[in-house]
Amino acid sequence: MRDDHVAALKEGMRYSLAIEAGEVRVLDERRLRDTEIVRLVHTAVFGADAAVRQAARWLIRRAGAALGIFPSSIQPLYEAMGREAVSGFTVPAINIRALTFDVAQAVLRAALAGRVGPVLFEIARSEIDYTRQRPEEYAAAVTAAAIRTGYRGPLFLQGDHFQVNAKKYAQAPAAEVRAVKDLIWEAIEGGFYNIDIDTSTLVDLSRPTPARQQETNYTLAAELTTMIRDLEPAGITISVGGEIGEVGGKNSTVEELRAFMDGYRSVLREAGADLAGISKISVQTGTTHGGVPLADGSVAKVKIDFDTLAELSRAARGEYGLAGAVQHGASTLPDEAFDRFPAVGTAEIHLATGFQNILYDSRHFPDALRDRIYGYLKAELASERKETDTDEQFFYKTRKKGFGPFKQELWELPDAVRQALGEELERQFAFLFGKLRVTDTRALLDRTLRPVDVPPGVPAAWCA
């Protein structure tokens, strides 16, 4: 049966793609873009068995390469930012939790219209689980979106918050570190050449000095960096991010930044090789992932310490040659806040929940589907509800976990519904690109970065 599914996949693509000796040529780009990529990406996500899904994902990646679409590392641009050879913008990193093919198209349409260069498509370790999207699948959906929109050039896929869970680490440290290493390996195989290591959960503020507080954080971050350097493909330096303060905790300081970076670099030197270190540093300046929901379901106003963010970015660039500081948990901030990030030299900003909110709260989102998702949350996630939570607060905090169980139903919403949702998101992406000053940066990106083709192994089922 598996061979039949792969044979049917081959037959269905024979008018648009030619596959010979593991290489893919595009025969009819319009046919591929207008109709067949839609079927192909659906197979890549929901195909009848693992073999046909893997074959479809490989075919999407190679078709993308044939059209000039490559998974890439943002490292050369961040090195230029660290040298202060380029500046004046903040790179958006966008987490897509649902409708990945459609949402990625909205991102890319806005990017093409605004001649935007650097945009990161990312997914966190936690999101991989509750949205039921493994890295290879996520990469296929984003690449398919690039084919569909006519995008050409580098695709920056990023592992966000590849985080060591503090509770699991306390119980079984080797097993928890192994789980993160396994995920890093899987992500790199899937074309993720940007990895954010998050060992900041292990910072121990009860220790007497910042150096001691950050010790486990920087030691483990260096160990994971060394592993990444061993795995990265020839011709690519994976962009690695570190983190000094857990989002939602106390605000970071320059002293903590120096303690982390000095310790981290010392451990890398002791590894006995001249390894490239991190390219950016995530800090805490007052935000919380997703925001804090109030009793009526609205989100509490957050005051970001932009002075601290500016100081941390200056120190990161001036003292360590990094691109700058990274701001997490920012998508629910008021619109007027976003132009301040490039003004204070923020290297990168992570955006997720705000786009989720646009989907759920849109007048185009089917009421009946939302009701079914909320019913599921009430039944299955009751243990996550605090006694003081209103329904609005409970749903706001948990509705991200409805995307996985309802993934296929969301993907298969009527075309008109998905188009309307995509147009709403596209307007918001275009707005944010303007605020973050990444419009008209495509030429800069092209001067800075040369994409490298890394052909993945041909799936065994494809050769059968």
How many E-type strands? Answer: 11
Return the domain count: 2
Any guess at the CATH architecture of the largest domain?
Alpha-Beta Barrel
CATH superfamily of the largest domain: Aldolase class I
Major sheet characteristics: 8 strands, parallel, barrel
Q: Give the low-confidence spans.
A: 289-294
Structural category: alpha/beta
Helix content: 40-55%
What integer value in Å does the Rg equal? 22 Å
* Oligomeric grouping of the chains: single chain
Strand arrangement across the biggest beta sheet: 4-5-6-7-8-9-10-11
Shape: globular
CATH domain class of the largest domain: Alpha Beta
Overall pLDDT metric: 92
How far from one another are the termini? 13 Å
What is the overall number of helices? 21
Question: What's the CATH topology label of the largest domain?
Answer: TIM Barrel
Percent of residues in beta strands?
5-15%
Q: Layout of helices and strands, plus pairs?
A:
Elements: H1 2-12, E1 17-20, E2 23-26, H2 29-46, H3 50-66, E3 69-71, H4 75-82, E4 91-95, H5 100-113, E5 120-124, H6 125-130, H7 135-149, E6 153-163, H8 166-171, H9 173-189, E7 194-198, H10 210-213, H11 215-231, E8 239-243, H12 254-270, E9 280-283, H13 306-320, E10 325-327, H14 340-343, E11 348-351, H15 353-361, H16 367-380, H17 391-398, H18 407-411, H19 415-435, H20 442-448, H21 460-463
Parallel strand pairs: 3-6, 4-5, 4-11, 5-6, 6-7, 7-8, 8-9, 9-10, 10-11
Antiparallel strand pairs: 1-2
Descriptive key words:
2 domains; two-stranded antiparallel ribbon; TIM Barrel; 464 residues; alpha/beta; single chain
